[in-house]
Amino acid sequence: MALVVSTVRTPTPPIWMIAGVGASLCAAVLTPVSLVEGGPTFCPFLLLTGWPCPTCGMTRAWVLLGHGRWSESLSYNPVGPLVLATVLIWFGVLLWRRVGHPSPQWFGKLLVPLVVIAVGAYGIARIVLVANGQWEWDG
Q: Which residues contact 130 (CB under 8 A, 6 or more apart)?
């Protein structure tokens, strides 16, 4: 009996997905910092509860990162650089898959779950600290 090894081929990502991820990365660099500093808050979770969600401040963090203002970026969302780096890698993976290569196993099975856990843990810790008055959140 012959052993048959099957390879699961992931579908080629649509061009709109690649363009969307690329556009979000470009927006971080091209958006003027003045547009995100002190602007309104659109987070439904924050507006309903008064507590920041795990991604509150991420847009501001990304724009500041895109302009090389690392320390200010970290003050808005400390996991912003981690998420931005993951999205950059995701963009590369999408391009890699688009030309016919399979997705690297470490991306979907290791990196993405670790980033989700890190963002979730940070978000929970921040909510607890804000709720206890140990962290002042001004959005």
A: 51, 52, 136, 137
Cβ pair 43, 37 in contact under 8 A: no
Give yes or no for residue 4 having a pLDDT over 60. Answer: no
Structure tokens at 106: 């470490």
By residue count, the chain amounts to: 139
Closest CA to 67 of 35, 44, 45: 35
Rounded to whole angstroms, the Cα distance separating 64 from 35 reads 11
Backbone φ and ψ of 50, nearest 5°: 85, 0
Give the number of other Cβ atoms within 10 Å of residue 13's Cβ. 17
Distance from the first to the final alpha carbon of the chain: 63
- State the average pLDDT over residues 73-80: 93
